[in-house]
Design brief:
heterodimer; A: 112 residues; mainly beta; four-stranded antiparallel β-sheet; 10 strands; B: 114 residues; seven-stranded mixed β-sheet; 11 strands; 0% helix; 48% strand; globular
Chain lengths: 112, 114
Amino acid sequence: GESVGLHLPTLSVQEGDNSIINCAYSNSASDYFIWYKQESGKGPQFIIDIRSNMDKRQGQRVTVLLNKTVKHLSLQIAATQPGDSAVYFCAESTGGGNKLTFGTGTQLKVEL
Amino acid sequence: EAGVAQSPRYKIIEKRQSVAFWCNPISGHATLYWYQQILGQGPKLLIQFQNNGVVDDSQLPKDRFSAERLKGVDSTLKIQPAKLEDSAVYLCASSATDNNSPLHFGNGTRLTVT
């Protein structure tokens, strides 16, 4: 299928290494943040979310860090696997609602 | 649980023609969204429904786009007439609530306008 990753920033990592994908947001009023994974030809898949009253949240092999001071969000993937290859989007919303604004995305490529 | 279902999977039309997309959300999800994703970009919200009412359609080009969710379950998005710049993937998503709950997306309809 046609890639959603054309013209996107690319991060290449070796299988087994840790990956860090970064996202900057501009709205200081944003209070809910989500990371999505999108594989070619599929819709975005929820990975992990975090609310603004937290600065770290962990899931299975993933950790999200939120730095509200510099309006920065990161997604850390431990022991990256070939199946992690995809485009990753951060998204934010304001005021407790679900109107998400998506970032431009990062293409993660896992090299064997 | 079954995911968000969308059809058709692909659609090719000529400019000035009309097209409709269908979405069936996850059972029990009151909130439904339509997003447009242009190649290489993140999804952009077109319209949000809560049950059968519109919550936000501020970014919907109302001169050519329309959407409905008459019975508060499935939804259709229509474009009439289509323009070349409407070529994109149209994603439907649903969430259990409209308050800080993750959106679950379907696989989208890829529209090509020639």
